[in-house]
Design brief:
374 residues; 8% helix; globular; 16-stranded antiparallel beta sheet; 1 helix; mainly beta
C-alpha cells in the first residue's frame, strides 16, 4: 500500500485538487439559485372545433364556424423548507370568441385570451401553521385554490362544469387575498376526516383608489365544510359577495335581470369512486342556490338555482384513457323583483373521450350543447 501511494501520490493529489475545485464551483452555483427545489410543469393545449350556435337576442349573426386556438400554461412550484410552496403560473393563449363565451356555456376549461402575451396568471405563497393548518396569501389568487378539499372530482371540457357547477359559490376571479384551512389528522388516507376552509379575496388590493381592506373594495368571503375519504366526500359551502362586482355572475344565466345588491351563495357537493375501474363510474353531483339583497329595481334578480351531474369512466376501453359525461342546469335567475320575469330553466351537457397517445400527449374529442340560455 505504501509503494502504491508513493507511485501514484502525484496523480492522487491532482485528482483531489480537481474534485475540490468542482465542489467549490457547484456550491457557488447553488448559492446563486432561487431555490434548488423549483420545479416547472408545462401544459400546451390546441383547441380546434366547430360551433353551430343560434344567435341570441341582440347579438350578431349565428356562429357556424370552425375555430382554432391555443392555451399554454407553465406552473412553477418552489419550496424553501420542504413544507411550504411558492406557486407561480405563467400563461398565454389566443382564445377569443365562442370558446371564451360564458353566457352560452361554450367557454372551454383550457382557454386563455392573453392575445399571445406571456403574463403572470397566478402567484401565491402557501405555508403550514402547526401540523393541521395551512395558510395562503397572494396578490393573484382565487378562492378555490385556498380549500382543503376540492369541490369536484369531475374533469370538465367546458368551464361551466368545473367545481361541481361553476356558479355563484365557487365561481370567482383572480384577485388579492388570503385564506386558512384545517384538516383533521388521520392514520390512513382511506379514513374519513373533516376539513374546514375559509378565505377572503378582494379586487381592490391592487387599486390605488380603493385598497385591500376598505369598504370601497369588492370582496368575496368563501367558507367550506367537508367530510370524506379518498373514495367519497360530501361538502357544503357558503360565499358572501359584497360591493358592485358580481363575483358569482360569471357563469350565471341571469338574462332576465341583473344582480343589484350583495349576494349570499350556497353550494352542496357529493362525490364517490368505486373500489375498482369498470362499468360503474365515479360520479359528482352539485347543487347551488343564492339570495340577493336587491335594491328594489324592477326586474332585478332576488334568487338563483342550478345543478350538475358528472360521470367519469377511468380506463375506458383502453387502460389510461378516460371518458366523461356531464349535464345539468347552469345557475340561473328563478326569483325576480316585481316586474321581472324569471329565466327559462336552461340545460347544458357535454361528453368527451380522453385518448392518451403517450405519457406527454393526449387527444380529447368532445361534443357539448345547451338550450334555453338566452
Amino acid at each position: 500500500a505504501t509503494r502504491l501511494s508513493n507511485e501514484f501520490g502525484t496523480e492522487m493529489a491532482i485528482l483531489k485538487g480537481r474534485v475540490d475545485g468542482l465542489e467549490y464551483k457547484v456550491q457557488e452555483l447553488s448559492a446563486g439559485q432561487f431555490s434548488p427545489s423549483t420545479k416547472m410543469k408545462g401544459t400546451i393545449t390546441f383547441n380546434t372545433g366547430y360551433l353551430d350556435t343560434d344567435a341570441r337576442t341582440g347579438t350578431a349573426a349565428d356562429e357556424t364556424k370552425v375555430h382554432m386556438q391555443y392555451d399554454a400554461r407553465y406552473d412553477l412550484k418552489t419550496s424553501f423548507s420542504g413544507k411550504d410552496q411558492l406557486y407561480t403560473r405563467i400563461r398565454t393563449g389566443s382564445g377569443s370568441g365562442p370558446f371564451e363565451d360564458t353566457t352560452t356555456g361554450t367557454h372551454l376549461s383550457k382557454s386563455n385570451s392573453n392575445a399571445d402575451a406571456l403574463k403572470v396568471d397566478k402567484i401565491w405563497y402557501k405555508f403550514p401553521i402547526g401540523d393541521d393548518i395551512t395558510a395562503w396569501v397572494g396578490p393573484r389568487i382565487e378562492n378555490t385554490h385556498m380549500l382543503a378539499s376540492k369541490p369536484s372530482i369531475y374533469k370538465p371540457v367546458t368551464k361551466q362544469f368545473g367545481m361541481g357547477g361553476n356558479g355563484s359559490t365557487y365561481g370567482t376571479s383572480t384577485a388579492q387575498g388570503f385564506g386558512f384551512a384545517w384538516t383533521q389528522a388521520t392514520e390512513s388516507r382511506s379514513d374519513a376526516s373533516f376539513s374546514v376552509s375559509t378565505n377572503w379575496t378582494s379586487d381592490g388590493g391592487s387599486s390605488a383608489s380603493s385598497g385591500l381592506l376598505t369598504s370601497d373594495s369588492d370582496t368575496k368571503w368563501l367558507s367550506q365544510l367537508a367530510y370524506g375519504s379518498s373514495q367519497w366526500q360530501v361538502s357544503g359551502a357558503v360565499a358572501q359577495h359584497n360591493g358592485t362586482k358580481n363575483w358569482g355572475d360569471f357563469y350565471n344565466t341571469t338574462q332576465a335581470g341583473t344582480l343589484t345588491g350583495d349576494q349570499t351563495a350556497y353550494a352542496l357537493r357529493a362525490s364517490w369512486r368505486p373500489d375498482s375501474t369498470g362499468a360503474i363510474p365515479p360520479f359528482q353531483v352539485g347543487y347551488d342556490w343564492s339570495t340577493v339583497s336587491d335594491d328594489g329595481t324592477a326586474g332585478a334578480t332576488e334568487g338563483t338555482t342550478g345543478y350538475m351531474v358528472g360521470l367519469t369512466w377511468d380506463d375506458a376501453f383502453i387502460d389510461g384513457n378516460k371518458a366523461g359525461v356531464a349535464f345539468g342546469s347552469p345557475e340561473h335567475a328563478d326569483d325576480m323583483v316585481a316586474g321581472g320575469t324569471a329565466d327559462e330553466t336552461p340545460f347544458a351537457w357535454e361528453a368527451y373521450y380522453d385518448y392518451k397517445v403517450n405519457d406527454g400527449i393526449a387527444i380529447t374529442p368532445a361534443i357539448f350543447g345547451f338550450s334555453d340560455r338566452d
